[in-house]
Design brief:
Strand content: 15-25%
CATH superfamily of the largest domain: HUPs
Number of domains: 2
Strand order of the largest sheet: 6-7-9-8-10-11
CATH class of the largest domain: Alpha Beta
Low-confidence stretches: none
CATH architecture of the largest domain: 3-Layer(aba) Sandwich
Shape: elongated
Distance between the termini: 52 Å
Oligomer: single chain
Number of strands: 11
Number of helices: 12
Largest sheet: 6 strands, antiparallel
Order of helices and strands: EHEHEHHEHEHHHHEEHEEHEEH
Length: about 325
């Protein structure tokens, strides 16, 4: 086997250490970074991709980035191996990543892949049984090395063939990262990102929004998934949902991402959010959406205020006078 491997690189603590270990063993490494609509680290200058690029640059290795888009959204909707604690399809997610890694491994003639996974660190995908399923279904059985926990796992093909010295691999397990923190100090690695990983699907508030969308939508696009990150969400009917911007940045995003058939709302003469109603609005729902709009504006909550509304594709603006919605009723609709 050639001494070249694909290393899954998030830019986080564990994957950074795995890269360092493999380089110290004389393995030529190509980093592979994955992104999705559900990454928590997605800002332009400090997101997962940029952090992975920083690590690759620091170690002097090449890196490839892959965006898991519609294919991944479809997996989240109906994962073969089910969900974790919330709506995280961790096993199916890893299988998808590994299949991509396998294709690149063949493309560049690498011999195996490796990850920063730690046995027992995550309850769904980092159990030994789950790891075996992932390796087998991705077509990489025996070709996935996990250097941080390798001595607690069966030897892989690169270990058996002497490409990787098993004695120099580690036996870390569990959720504590004390061993990894000690290692980065020893290696003098001062800049690493998202030490505990970052997936919105593991967070209960986002998971509830995703569950709502799965329940009421026949098709979920990448754009739909990204909208779940923005604003406050309210379910009015099976076919209508309302999104309320929380700040100027979210207001701008809502305006850019609104579809032609959506409706927008704002309170005339007062500071307040951009509100977008999606789905089958209907005249009967206009007052309710307007009351929600009034509730989050700077206007007094107990007096009537003018709320402007229009269909995004239509420049004709209508005005309705409403008072702010009752807090109890609002809470019942909040996703």
């Amino acid at each position: 086997m050639e001494k070249m491997a694909i290393g899954l690189l998030s830019g986080g603590l564990d994957s950074t250490l795995a890269i360092k270990i493999m380089l110290d063993l004389g393995i030529e490494v190509i980093g592979l970074n994955f992104m999705s609509p559900f990454c928590t680290c997605t800002s332009k200058n400090s997101g997962c991709k940029s952090e992975a690029v920083k690590v690759a640059k620091a170690f002097g290795i090449g890196i490839k980035s892959i965006f898991l888009g519609q294919e991944y959204v479809d997996v989240v909707r109906a994962p073969k191996h089910g969900y974790g604690k919330n709506i995280n399809p961790c096993i199916d997610c890893r299988i998808m990543m590994f299949r991509y890694a396998k294709g690149i491994m063949k493309e560049i003639n690498a011999s195996f892949i490796f990850t920063g996974e730690v046995l027992g660190q995550r309850p769904m995908s980092q159990r030994q049984a789950a790891m075996s399923i992932i390796d087998k279904e991705s077509g990489l059985k025996g070709l996935v090395l996990r250097p941080l926990s390798a001595k607690l796992l069966e030897p892989t093909i690169p270990e058996k063939e002497g490409i990787v010295n098993r004695e120099r691999l580690l036996r870390i397990s569990g959720r504590s990262r004390k061993s990894q923190i000690r290692m980065v100090e020893e290696y003098n690695i001062n800049d690493y990102h998202c030490p505990s990983g970052g997936c919105l699907l593991t967070q209960i508030s986002f998971a509830n929004r995703m569950k709502d969308m799965i329940k009421f939508s026949n098709k979920i696009s990448v754009k739909d998934a990204r909208l779940l990150r923005i604003g406050r969400h309210f379910r009015l009917t099976d076919k209508c949902k309302v999104i309320v911007g929380r700040n100027e940045e979210e207001n701008d995003k809502l305006e850019r991402m609104a579809e032609p058939d959506d409706y927008s709302f704002y309170v005339k003469g007062y500071k307040g959010p951009v509100v977008v109603a999606k789905g089958a609005i209907g005249e009967s729902l206009i007052p309710i959406v307007s009351q929600i709009t009034a509730r989050y504006s700077d206007a007094s909550k107990d007096v009537e205020v003018p709320v402007c509304w229009k269909k995004i594709s239509n420049n004709e603006v209508s005005i309705i006078m409403v008072t702010a919605i009752d807090e109890i009723r609002l809470k019942e609709m909040r996703i």
